[in-house]
Specification:
CATH architecture of the largest domain: 3-Layer(aba) Sandwich
Number of domains: 2
Number of strands: 5
CATH class of the largest domain: Alpha Beta
Shape: globular
Helix content: 40-55%
Largest sheet: 3 strands, parallel
Radius of gyration: 21 Å
Oligomer: single chain
Order of helices and strands: EHEHHEHHHHEHEHHHHH
Strand content: 5-15%
Distance between the termini: 33 Å
Length: 328
């Protein structure tokens, strides 16, 4: 039986956090045996915000290494850099012509990023969701792992694909959102009503962060004055820490509550820090080993791009035929 295909990617726009790891990468590593997985470093998306060229180059390579260090085996899936497959940009332009201005104006991420980068509200920022749709539809993905903040983009992707299919008959597979069985929406440690972000280092923990700093940040994480460990509505700080601990240890909220019954926040935070350190140390060691073998990393993203191009070019040929372009 043919495996269903999953596509996902992460921008090389800053240091990956434990939010990226616990919400995405840790789950990706579990998916590669069950699905045909295609994972990209989406560098085309990154330049909607100005990037330092040298840093962007280094982050792209580092992200490949972090994927593998987190258990995403390139022998079992496809790992590649988005800009190495020109069909992403080509299909994005074509789909721009089947996407309505009103649809893009409704995108909440455009409004959010425009307010944060008021000096650089560029057309790419506006059409970003169309490129995301092209990423997914190029590979005829069945499933797309999505967080809460990406659901709107997936809906747009589905709408555009369905519109194209109505005009030209079935061309694109209509993707479904994939919600991981395990995982966490990790919130900012200092402001737990806001999602943990690469751009807020004070309240986030980087995947490659110094171990002493990891422990310090967990100890300083916001809690409350109630003094007991229980997942309850409105207790954003404690709920966030329970989610982190549960995602690392695979324990349920009830199991965590029982484990820390009669114990204070100091014991709870100590356990979280120890569990996180035990999780991150081997990842960081593997990352350093991989970064010392850049020839291997190049072989991974080169062979990954070769496979990605085969699939993407087949979709592009089909699209060209449907809209009336002369065959190359």
């Amino acid at each position: 039986m043919e495996k269903k295909r999953i596509f996902s990617g992460i921008q090389p726009s800053g240091a990956l956090t434990i939010g990226n790891y616990l919400g995405a990468l840790k789950n990706w590593a579990q998916l590669i045996d069950e699905y045909d997985c295609i994972f990209s470093v989406v560098d085309l998306h990154a330049i909607t915000v100005r990037q330092d060229p040298k840093e962007l180059n280094e982050r792209c390579l580092g992200l490949i290494a972090q994927y593998i260090a987190c258990g995403i085996d390139p022998e079992k899936c496809t790992i590649f850099i988005q800009s190495h497959v020109p069909a992403h940009a080509e299909l994005s332009w074509i789909l721009n012509c089947y996407t309505y201005m009103g649809e893009l104006e409704r995108m909440t991420q455009f409004k959010d990023k425009s307010s944060r980068h008021a000096d650089n509200i560029n057309a790419g920022l506006f059409t970003y969701p169309v490129l995301m749709a092209a990423d997914i539809l190029l590979y005829q993905a069945d499933l797309v792992p999505v967080g809460h903040d990406q659901k709107q983009h997936l809906e747009l992707c589905r709408d555009v694909a369905e519109r194209f299919n109505r005009i030209y008959d079935d061309t694109f597979k209509i993707p479904e959102g994939y919600i991981a069985k395990m995982g966490a929406r990790v919130m900012d440690l200092q402001n737990p009503e806001k999602k943990m972000s690469k751009s807020e280092p004070a309240g986030s923990i980087a995947l490659l962060e110094d171990i002493a700093s990891v422990t310090k940040k967990i100890k300083r994480a916001q809690t409350d004055s109630l003094g007991y460990v229980k997942f309850e509505e409105g207790r954003h700080g404690i709920n966030n820490l329970i989610s982190i601990y549960g995602a690392v240890t695979r324990k349920t909220a009830d199991e965590i509550e029982n484990e820390f019954q009669g114990k204070g926040y100091g014991d709870f935070k100590k356990a979280i820090a120890e569990a996180l350190v035990a999780e991150l140390e081997p990842i960081q060691a593997k990352y350093q080993e991989l970064m010392n073998n850049k020839d291997y990393l190049k072989s991974v993203y080169t062979s990954g791009a070769d496979r990605a191009r085969e699939i993407a070019d087949e979709t592009i040929r089909k699209v060209h035929q449907k809209i009336g372009y002369i065959e190359r």
